């Protein structure tokens, strides 16, 4: 698929310290392959991208919102409890949404 484009996009994903482990995890789960220093998205990876494309967890805005609140916690304008409470509600929402997801999608991802 693309290589340099994906690498450019990953500049905003994670931190320098976590980026390599994110890529390694994607590779181990067969979502990407690496050949001659190029990253390729597998069929399984493309399917996952289509499934979560409209999901909140894939939304860069959600990550930015979390980062803003973490800054508030660092400056003592927010609390860890409030942040974790919002994360808990978000995860519960995702779990409920997953229960509604068709079994076909779940089986297909397990390839």
Automatic annotation (TrEMBL):
<dbReference type="Pfam" id="PF01131">
    <property type="entry name" value="Topoisom_bac"/>
</dbReference>
<dbReference type="InterPro" id="IPR000380">
    <property type="entry name" value="Topo_IA"/>
</dbReference>
<keyword id="KW-0413">Isomerase</keyword>
<protein>
    <submittedName>
        <fullName>DNA topoisomerase</fullName>
        <ecNumber>5.6.2.-</ecNumber>
    </submittedName>
</protein>
<dbReference type="GO" id="GO:0003917">
    <property type="term" value="F:DNA topoisomerase type I (single strand cut, ATP-independent) activity"/>
</dbReference>
<dbReference type="GO" id="GO:0006281">
    <property type="term" value="P:DNA repair"/>
</dbReference>
<dbReference type="GO" id="GO:0003677">
    <property type="term" value="F:DNA binding"/>
</dbReference>
<dbReference type="GO" id="GO:0006265">
    <property type="term" value="P:DNA topological change"/>
</dbReference>
<dbReference type="InterPro" id="IPR023405">
    <property type="entry name" value="Topo_IA_core_domain"/>
</dbReference>
<dbReference type="GO" id="GO:0043597">
    <property type="term" value="C:cytoplasmic replication fork"/>
</dbReference>
<dbReference type="InterPro" id="IPR013824">
    <property type="entry name" value="Topo_IA_cen_sub1"/>
</dbReference>
<dbReference type="GO" id="GO:0006310">
    <property type="term" value="P:DNA recombination"/>
</dbReference>
<feature type="domain" description="Topo IA-type catalytic">
    <location>
        <begin position="1"/>
        <end position="95"/>
    </location>
</feature>
<dbReference type="InterPro" id="IPR013497">
    <property type="entry name" value="Topo_IA_cen"/>
</dbReference>
